[in-house]
Each structure stands twice: as C-alpha cells, then as structure tokens.
C-alpha cells in the first residue's frame, strides 16, 4: 500500500484529470525545434559549392558521412 502511495506522489507520472500542455506554451518550443531542424538540414544538404556560407570544405567534410547516410549525393 505504501508503494502505491509513493508512486502517485511522483510529479513526473501523469495522473488522470490533468490538462494537456496549453498550445501557447508549446508553440515557441515547436518553432525553435523547426528552426534547429532547418539549420541542420541546410548544413547537411546544401553547405557546399556555390551556396556555401563558409570558405573551404570544412563543413562539407564534417557532415560528409551524415550526408550519405541521409541520401544526399555530394560526389
């Protein structure tokens, strides 16, 4: 009995009747996640050649294996 009472006191376990996360609290985090994903996608897919933001091939070589793993051709 004491074990079940301790389990229900844990703040990280959801309990029935609690409301979902409000959209106005979730939206900034979702926008931040999309921004990070777009930056990652740019560096893995486009950062080489004519569209490069940085001189040299440093970024290309850093993400080279990830580029092939995700199916982006580069040579």
Which blocks of ≥5 consecutive residues have pLDDT under 50? none
Distance between the termini: 64 Å
Overall geometric form: elongated
Structural class: mainly alpha
Helical percent range? Answer: 40-55%
Kindly report the average pLDDT value: 75
What is the tally of helical segments? 4
Question: How would you characterize the largest beta sheet?
Answer: none
- DSSP strand content: under 5%
DSSP summary, beta strand count? 0
H/E element order: HHHH
Radius of gyration, taken over Cα atoms and rounded to an integer in Å: 22 Å
In words, what does this structure look like?
By secondary structure, the chain is mostly helical. The protein is built from 4 helices and no strands. The protein has a domain at 24-75. The protein is elongated and about 55 Å long.
């Amino acid at each position: 009995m004491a074990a079940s009472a301790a389990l229900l006191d844990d703040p990280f376990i959801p309990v029935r009747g609690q409301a979902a996360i409000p959209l106005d609290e979730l939206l900034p985090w979702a926008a931040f996640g999309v921004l990070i994903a777009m930056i990652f996608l740019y560096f893995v897919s486009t950062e080489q050649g004519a569209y490069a933001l940085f001189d040299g091939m440093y970024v290309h070589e850093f993400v080279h294996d990830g580029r092939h793993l995700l199916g982006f051709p580069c040579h």
